[in-house]
Amino acid sequence: MTEGRPRVPPLVLVLTAIVSVQFGGALAATLVPHIGAGGSVLLRLAFATAILLVVARPRLRGRSRRAWLAVLAFGVALGLMNLAFYASLARLPIGVAVTIEFLGPLTLATALSRRLRDLAAVAAAAVGVVLISEALGTPVADLEWTGLGLAAVAGACWAAYILASRQVGREFASLDGLALAMVVALVLVLPFGLGSAPQWEAGDVAKGLGIAVLSSVLPYSLELAALRHLNPRVFGILLSLEPVAAALAGLLILGQRLHLTQLLGMGLVVLASALVMGAGQRRDPAESGG
């Protein structure tokens, strides 16, 4: 059902998804060195797709051409986003990769903005993300340009994911569209990860299952539900909380600690998100596309 007031506020759905995906990302950081980016993405998507197909049991008949095109676009965006970002992590410091990737949704938020305060929030979020990632402290000579390109591709796919998932939410009830899009994404990444299968151990497969739930099934489902009632511009800026959640996950799982400049950046990100939440709560429901 896509109309009416949601039982859980869309902002709560998005925030829960952000925390989940970043804890899944921290878990993935321990898997990529073992089986590579392609294998890690393949395991993640294989488990996530199987779970969603069992839960959603999507109906195939009676779908319009527009609905299938939306699923195809959503699935391609999902697959390429994950492949490009995981591959960039093999060539870039994770903070730099996250910063470059975030330019995708940040650019989308800026392009869709119509209010001066929204532009100020985007600027604050951008500065905060840079400070949190410590990208300014990384010498240019140490950066790998192929990695930068891959992170940029991931960012563009992230922006496409925001728009495509909203369209899928309009065309399909429940999780049907998401489950079908995951099949598309799985087929897309299969050639890139299947070669690493002989290296998989039981622990790797178990991590893949955990990553699938934390980074795919739970966040994508929550975001898909939220985007039925939330303007994609607001959603794009709210994603500025991703580095904050990543910092928390890194501290608890990987033992990574924040410096003073990173804490300042986190404050800017939280401020930007608070501004957007306030604007979203006063927005005309018709404008939010619900």
TrEMBL record:
Q: Which stretches are transmembrane?
A: 38-55, 67-86, 92-112, 119-137, 143-163, 175-193, 205-222, 234-254, 260-280
| Broad class of where this protein is predominantly found | membrane
Stated membrane topology is: Multi-pass membrane protein
Which UniProt keywords are given for this protein, alphabetically ordered?
Answer: Cell membrane, Membrane, Transmembrane, Transmembrane helix
- State the coiled-coil residue ranges: none
Q: Which InterPro entries match?
A: Diverse_Substrate_Transporter, EamA_dom, EmrE-like
Gene Ontology CC, one term: plasma membrane
Q: Does the keyword Cell membrane apply?
A: yes
Presence of the UniProt keyword Membrane in the record: yes
Q: Where in the cell is it found?
A: Cell membrane
Pfam families xrefs? EamA
Looking at the record, the residues that make up the EamA domain are 146-277
Q: Which family does it belong to?
A: Belongs to the EamA transporter family.
Q: What is this protein called?
A: EamA family transporter
Organism field: Knoellia koreensis
